Amino acid sequence: MKRNPDMEKPSSGSIDELLNSFIDGELMAGQQTEVERLIAQDAKIAQRLRQMQQCKILVGSLPDTEAPAEVLEGIKTSLAGKTPSAVEQTWDEWAAKKYFLVRRVLSAAAMIGLVALLAAVVYTIVAPRPITEEPVVIEDRQPPEKVEVIGPRHGVVTAMRFSGRLELKTSTLIAVDAFINRTIEDNGLLDSNDSARRQDKRIYPLSCSRQDLNLLLAELGNIWSELNSATLFIDTEVFGKQVVVDEVTPEQIVEIINQNSPEKRIELAKDFAAFNNIAKHVPGREIMAAIEGRNRSLITIPRPVLTGKQGTIRKPVGRADDKETVHLTIIVNW
Amino acid sequence: MTEAANMNIRRRQASNERINIDDAVLVEQSRRGDSEAMERLILKYQNRIYNVILKICADPDDAAELTQETFVKIIENLNKFEGRSGFYTWAFRIAVNLTLSYRQRSAKLALRSLDAEEEHYDSQSRQVLKDFLSDDSSPDPAAVVQNKELCEIVVKAMMKLDDAQRAVVVLRDIEGMNYARIAEVLDIELGTVRSRLSRARSKLRDILEAFLQ
After folding, report:
1. Which residue from B minimizes the CA distance to A80?
2. Cα(B209)–Cα(A54) distance, rounded to whole angstroms?
3. Which residues of A touch B34 (CB under 8 A)?
């Protein structure tokens, strides 16, 4: 059992307590006076007082010892890892806030950049493209007002231009050849003429405007009486299939060429073919004479008329169609 | 009691009064993280706390370690310091409690060590002590300080006191605390301080006289 130091001398120490309190100045004024009186009257008490004082002096006279220098360093070292100072804490908090602020700004910038990039990509995908090219499908093109619609059938990629072959037979090949050459030169079609001369025929492949071809055919009408026959072969949309018009006249050729659509061109050519075939077998030759221009009032070739809801639109003067390139190969045989 | 000893105690007591005012500022600055104030607080008390601990445990290495541990605990618990007592009292309470706890753990070892060294005092030191204790005139503390062996005898004698008694003696006669502050530091009654101190001095006297036998 542990010994209680306060219980060693439970009763006999009261005078010692008083003396020690006296020495230490811990007595009230009255007690102080009483102890002084006791000391003065009792030699034993005075001696005891000196003994207590000697103990106090001995202990109090022990030299003070300074703490080793390493104590302070040890304290700093111990505290460094345990309790950061508030200054460091404040600095750390500020640094942490700054770090998170910078991170937020960078994150926001990255997000904005990403959104902008995505927007650019999406815009590239879904934005309407500017019309810089000609529409591929004609049916999508809106025709201008007051302009004759040259309407190809559905699915036709481009309007088929006139292309045909005119075979002329004559017994005076040289004269006819010379006339045709001169006429081609006079109409300025020399560049486009790539004629070929063979022993029994002359070939004139022409690629010129419709207007030029009309003028050329008008000129050729002057020698039409010198021809034994004139047959027009018109190319159709079907490759290798042609519409043949026998006994064709320059006026008929012009009419056919001037048609604005292949369908009308073919239809008119068939009409002319049938008409010419009938006229060839009709006696009297009045009709033929009329065809040949000797009596034009006798017969009037009906012009094709559009029967759809769309009314016939007159061609504007000087329209580009007159300059449309047509292909006609004139072959002169004997 | 000599005038020199009284002046020494009065100087410490006056210092304790000034401490309270300065401590409040330093403590508040330390709480805000002022490391300089913290260092000033340590430098201000480290020698006194080390000295008290050394006189209680009598081992310089242990005293240094306990002093370091005391200040670490003080700084760590600075925010818990409520100010009901002065910082000085609070700091010494931590120091003494740590030291007494350490002493309890190593009490047997210390006693064995003391017993082993008991026979090594020479006759000259014994004579000085005999003269000192038998002198009816006022003893001279300076003579005690100059006699190194006499100091060692006193320290050894103090180590024969109970730790609780020794703590009271050290706080009163070395640190110069009044009874009320000792009671606050040790968390005991004022009357207990009075009686314990009386018995401690009486016992110390007996121990010292026993050295002369």
Report:
1. B72
2. 12
3. 85-87
The residues in B 146-175 lying below 8 A from A, measured between CB atoms, are: 151, 154-155, 158, 162, 164-165, 169-170, 172-174
Q: Domain B3-211: give its CATH architecture.
A: Orthogonal Bundle (1.10)
- Candidates B132, B195, B212, partner chain A, best to mutate (most A CBs within 10 A): B195
Residue pointed to by tokens 């300025």: A188
Is residue A167 within 8 A of residue A181, CB to CB? The reply is no
Q: What is the mean pLDDT of residues B10-26?
A: 65
Asked if B37 reaches chain A (Cβ–Cβ under 8 Å), the answer is no
- Band of the pLDDT at B118, cuts 50, 70, 90? low
Give residue-wise pLDDT tens across range A64-80. Answer: 888 998 888 888 888 77
At A19 the pLDDT is 92
Of B68, B155, B199, the CB nearest to A62: B155
Q: Taking 80 as the threshold, does the pLDDT of residue A237 lie above it?
A: no
Rounded mean pLDDT, B113-134: 66
Domain layout of chain B by residue ranges: 3-211
Assign A245 to helix, strand or coil.
strand
Domain boundaries of chain A, sorted by first residue: 12-60, 90-125, 163-308+321-333
CA gap A29, A72 in Å, rounded: 44
Q: Which secondary structure element, helix H or strand E, spans residue A235, and what is its range?
A: strand A227-235
Q: What residue type is B4 in one-letter code?
A: A
Distance from the Cα of A121 to chain B's closest Cα (Å) equals: 54
Burial bucket for residue A96 (CB in 10 Å: 0-12, 13-18, 19+): exposed
What's the rounded Cα separation, in Å, for the pair B81 and B74? 9
Which run of H or of E encompasses B156?
helix B148-159
> Which residues are CB-contacts of B53 (< 8 A; sequence separation ≥ 6)?
B62, B63, B66, B67, B70, B95, B96, B98, B99
Residues 6+ apart with CB under 8 A from A228: A169, A170, A171
Residues of B in contact with A9 (CB under 8 A): 199, 202
Stretch B143-168: mean pLDDT: 85
Geometric angle at alpha carbon B7, from B5 and B13, rounded to 5°: 110
Task: Collect all residues of chain B within an 8 Å Cβ-Cβ radius of residue A51.
Answer: 133, 205
Name the minimum distance, in Å, from the CA of A106 to any CA of chain B: 32
Which residue in B2, B136, B158 is closest to A57 by CB distance?
B2
Tokens of A291: 């065809």
